Predict the structure.
Amino acid sequence: MKTFWRYIFPGLFGLLIYATIRVINDTISDSRFWERHWHINAIEIVCSILIGVLLVFIFKKMFRRFDRNLQKTICYKTVLNELLWVMLAVQLSVNAIITPVVVLTDDGLSWGDVAVINIIPLLYCLIYYAAVRSNRLLQAYVNNKLQLEKLSNDHLQTELKFLKAQYHPHFLFNALNTVYFQMDENISEAKKTVEKFSELLRYQLYDQQQTVPVQQEIHYLQNFIDIQKIRTSERLRLKTNFDSSLNGQQVYPLLFLPLVENAFKYAGGDYNIAIDARANNDGIEFMVSNSLPPEPLPKKENGIGLENLRRRLELLYPGKHELKIKTDHGTYQAALTIQLS
């Protein structure tokens, strides 16, 4: 098959162009080309085979050059640029070989001859270009899209890792501070806190690349809450409710932590904190509320922040989440809904 496309097809391509031109000219002039002197037909046939071989050779060279540019973005300008080069190559080759042959072997060069000589080879060459290049252009377009998606995915993964890493410094500081003060009062309790702290840290370090069963996330939050209870005022009134139907659902880790952490961080006044997680059809509802101190909260706080959480939700659950936050009669309320399907 390779032999045919390499050695036979170029000549047949030229003969096809010649046959089409002859049929059109003979139909218009009501003549028969086989009634002419045989050497005239022989010259035209040889030149037609030559132009076919030349055009196919030029196209192969041009296509190799075009392929080097397909690493860039594929768009209509890419195809237009290739078509312009193809048209230029066809017109130069045809007018360099076929036009002089027509002038010398026929009864002069008419405007009709010029039109046929320039249009027919161009049409066949455009068909050849479409047949040969369409698959290559489509493949390059798909590869280019896949590469862009890979780069975008790599960028998002890098951003997610950065956002997750932001949780560590603030959490480490608070946990270590808790253990420090416990060691002065109760070594046994300090050891228990260290155990909980190590379990939390292990979860943060090793379980963040993929989704995890929601019960693991709940267990993490319960350990986190236990550590936070040690640090908070004895006046704290804490209510937690984790729906027993939250069992095998898969979620991305550490999405609920910012809401719980903020509740402990900003609780004041009556020191009420309520944490509620429940299954909701094909999703999860997570709600946190805390009473606020009499004085207003600062407008800008350092650390994780809700902007971090919103960005992670946009990356992990685009169009499948809702985060509502409001302050009502001295109570700060946050409700996060995530659709899992």
Summary: Strands lie at 212-213, 237-242, 250-251, 272-280, 283-291, 321-328, 331-339. The longest helix spans residues 111-165. Residues 2-149 form one domain.
